[in-house]
């Protein structure tokens, strides 16, 4: 998916942040099938950018164009369709259902990604196969983060948005998760935007942008 | 792309507890309201059907001349009949469609009614009675065995329904020898008809129907015509004293004898007086005029276009007539039952409206309580429709359960009243009618639609 940001400035954001940013207030084009790392400290608008691309925030100036379509003209049902078939977002706060078990959470998505392996295979790749039947509320944040990642990757997508996906993972699990992301995103021929607090995950990024 | 989620997972993550007290109140209100509506509709239909069958058409009236004064005065009974001139005038009045005269028996009549079902068995109810007949087209219905001919063994008799009620609720409880009678039992009673002052002739009769329209004891017109001709005393009460020069001349004479004397040169100076009241003298020529006057019926039934016209009312007032609606209490019963059922329907509708409002509020609260989960599902790409469907299904299950309960309650109450009605001789169709079911389906659809819109709007407001 081709993404074009044309002088996009979210509200409210300090003027000096805009001047130093490689994203806000610029003419930015993110090519299809590319991997982009958005690196910044807290409070610079990493989540804002992803939420804006996911249609959750409309309080910005400028234009965001996705595959030639201005997202400001997108209807509510249009966003529902995009979220169920075109865009997948891993929220920083995960948005899991604590009373449901891990497997139920993974499968609670409107459409299934045909390129994704089964939930068991994916869980095995992330050392989570023993936790599939456990209620999410009993899991640690790191375990929950991996369950949320599996759920995100099992959705169909052309644009994958990952908001600090490794914040609570150790290096071994970061490597495993990065490998799974790489495998499925490539299979989907998707554009990937990943945010981090400064560290660079073991993925081959086409571009690293600073906010 | 295929679906991944299981509906049970979707349901369970949106399964928040609703406001229990409000849901109980709404459910109870819905149950009572729906049941009242079902009962009101069903019994309105039932009573309308019964009253329609038995209803006096509003445009039928009877007319007779007023009877005034005490019994002694009326002993010298001048027949209060309608002359052919009067009948012609009434027929020509504005709004009068047709008229028919009541014919009365002209012979003494005594009835022996055998409630045991067999002549000679047990006690008979004995009464002097009268018969009348009217043209069949004025009857509220033509009973099955209403036909009579000279070879018939039984004379069919139709009496007002309230005669049977008087028997059952008045006579029977006060006399051990008289049993209470159902309509079927009453029509099976043999009746002996004794004709003549000394009961010279005996005929058999049967009650064949109970009229709700005509307040009289009716027999077929051809029977009465035949019986009057055969047993009648056309000149009974028609004897006069002849007065010549201030004193009575000879024995009483019949009207026809007097009429034959009209060519006598002194006829115009003679006077006559009725047998019952010898002092009431009038010119002899009056006998000819009276003959004309007595040709008509004493009571007539008329069909009018609508309510009595002003010309009919003024004619009635000017000529000292009485107008009667037969059994006007039918109207009162109809209005009373309609008022009762309207009242029930209004209470039912109000309760239903309140329950709709309470359900709507409760399910808005359910959506609000599930809003966090619902928002997360929307973020995952589920549509507003998918989420509102889950909550709506929850409402629908509850509502259909309540509505089924209402239908069963309505059916139960109807069955109970069916038995009660049967004891009073009223036959109702069992179960709920198609029309009631159709109204309930329509009511259910409206109820469902309103709540569907409320739930949908509440969900649509999420993530906007």
Give the tags:
heterodimer; A: 211 residues; alpha/beta; Rossmann fold; 5-stranded parallel β-sheet; 4-stranded antiparallel β-sheet; globular; B: 464 residues; alpha+beta; 4 domains; 5-stranded mixed β-sheet; 5-stranded antiparallel β-sheet; 13 helices; 48% helix
Q: What would you note in describing this structure?
A:
The complex is a heterodimer of chains A (211) and B (464). Chain A has a single domain, classed as P-loop containing nucleotide triphosphate hydrolases (Rossmann fold, 3-Layer(aba) Sandwich), CATH 3.40.50.300. A five-stranded parallel sheet of chain A has the order 6-7-8-3-9, with helices on both faces. Helices cover 32% and strands 21% of the residues of chain A. Chain A is built from seven helices and nine strands, in the order βαββαββαβαααβαββ. Chain A is globular and about 50 Å long. With 211 residues, chain A is an alpha/beta fold. Chain B has 464 residues and is an alpha+beta fold. Chain B folds into four domains: 171 residues, no CATH class; 65 residues, no CATH class; 121 residues, no CATH class; 55 residues, Dna Ligase, domain 1. The longest helix of chain B is centred in the C-terminal third of the chain and has 41 residues. About 2% of the residues of chain B have low confidence. At the A-B interface, helix 3 of A face helix 1 and helix 11 of B.
